[in-house]
Amino acid sequence: MIIKKIETNRRKEAVDITHIIKDSINIQNGLVVVYVPHTTAGVIINEAYDSDVADDILEKLSQLVPYSDSYKHHEGNSDAHIQSSMVGSSVSIIVENSKLMLGRWQGVFFMEFDGPRRREIYIKIIEG
Length: 128
What we know:
It is a single chain. By secondary structure, the chain is α+β, with helices and mostly antiparallel strands. It has one domain: Jelly Rolls, CATH 2.60.120. The protein is 24% helix and 38% strand. β5 and β6 (99-100) form a beta hairpin. The two termini are 16 Å apart. The relative contact order is 0.40.
């Protein structure tokens, strides 16, 4: 397993980590699993060509799950826990001929919901 460090700069932020994943590939064919071991962050695959898409996702999640509501969790970050649950904590990507089999416009994004923070990304490469 490969562990990569990432630092986020804002409370809500989408960070394109596609290059980190690509640089980690050391197999011809197989699968890459990207896992985020945090309860207030997640990972998604979505459009990387236009950064407005990631911003729109963050904005819509903030509208659906606002910062302030009648949450019981006393730390003040319940919205971040809920949003990370909505997007998920892992993605799997096929590797063929040492390349990520992402769609033409796709990228992998680390989704920060409770930053800024120092975070980790776990990358597991499965040959096959």
